[in-house]
Write a structure and sequence with these properties.
Order of helices and strands: HEHEHHHEHEHEHEHHEHEHHH
Oligomer: single chain
Distance between the termini: 52 Å
Number of strands: 8
Helix content: 40-55%
Strand content: 5-15%
Largest sheet: 8 strands, parallel
CATH architecture: Alpha-Beta Barrel
Structural class: alpha/beta
CATH topology: TIM Barrel
């Protein structure tokens, strides 16, 4: 009997929300997406210990700073993962650059060059940028240069539309974080899947893109439950943590396709320039809060990674 996971694979491209070598080998995702939290977790993966030791030794010998070694380590982990998936590996620009277009573009190009030096072509890499106005402008410049981008921390339709207008290859709306905010704000413990605010947000984006013939890929992310995943079956891509993948593998099929949803009348086109973008985020407390919080969290995890690297560089060489 086919599992829910088997049926889901027939409807959506599955992406592993992990940097674990063992998890990637076990679940055979098409792509892998990472963020600083996942890179930090991967740094404790026994399978990556030789990679970490090599990068620490090389950085120490070259006189590089812990920040530089952390950047090299992020690419090194991505280069280890890339051959394990047929598709792409997302590598995230440091969160502190989220409001600096030029610095984001320069960092993205450096990441692509660092992968190339390790034999990984740009066709295997997605540059992951926070969906601030400045991050979206960076994506626009990178896409023109043939560097594909994944816009992360999407919490509002206006972010999604602006990213698509910029030619972004993929967007990542964050289902669970949207739901978390509404549960806290409304004093709720849960929502039925068809009323879940995170699910509804992705359905709205997906419908808008289909109604207007937008080719940007919608990859729902940040799931809390398999019910949320089931409610978005048929979304272009779904990035799922190994724990939830395992749960879906144990659940029986069949699974009902939810997207694309039947048309319910015309979908008005949005014009999203800088003032409209900034106003949309200001007027939406959830989107405003979660975007800022996400950037802070990614930066905090990046700083923890740098601290871990600093400690390893300070330790006596073996």
């Amino acid at each position: 009997m086919q599992s829910a996971l088997d049926h889901l694979r027939e409807m959506s491209v599955l992406v592993a929300d992990t940097g674990s070598i063992d998890a990637i080998r076990a679940h055979r995702p098409v792509d892998c997406t990472t963020n600083p939290s996942l890179v930090l977790a991967a740094a404790s993966d026994p399978a990556l210990e030789p990679v970490i030791a090599r990068e620490i030794a090389a950085g120490r010998a070259a006189g590089h700073s812990p920040e530089q070694v952390s950047a090299a380590l992020t690419v090194a982990i991505g280069a280890e993962i890339a051959p394990l998936v047929p598709g792409r590996v997302s590598t995230e620009i440091e969160a502190r650059l989220s409001f600096d277009t030029d610095a984001s573009v320069a960092r993205a190009r450096a990441i692509i060059d660092a992968y190339a030096a390790r034999g990984i072509t740009r066709e295997k890499v997605l540059i992951k940028l926070a969906a601030t106005w400045e991050g979206i402008r960076a994506a626009e410049m990178l896409q023109r240069d043939g560097i594909d981008c994944n816009m992360t921390l999407i919490f509002a339709l206006e972010q999604a539309v602006a990213a698509a207008d910029a030619g972004a290859w993929l967007i990542s709306p964050f289902v669970g974080r949207i739901t978390d905010w509404h549960k806290k704000a409304e004093g709720r413990d849960s929502y039925p899947p068809d009323e879940d605010p995170g699910v509804l947000s992705v359905r709205r984006i997906h419908r808008y893109f289909r109604a207007h013939g937008i080719g940007t890929i919608v990859m729902a992310a940040s799931f809390r439950t398999t019910d949320q995943i089931r409610a978005l079956a048929g979304c272009d891509r779904l990035t799922i943590a190994p724990k939830l993948i395992d749960e879906l593998a144990r659940q029986p099929g069949p699974l009902t396709r939810q997207l694309p949803a039947p048309a319910a009348g015309p979908v008005e086109a949005l014009t999203v320039d800088a003032p409209a973008f900034r106003w949309a985020l200001t007027a939406d407390p959830m989107a405003n809060d979660k975007l800022a919080e996400g950037i802070r969290q990614f930066d905090a995890d990046h700083q923890r990674l740098v601290a871990l690297v600093r400690a390893k560089m300070s330790a006596p060489a073996p």
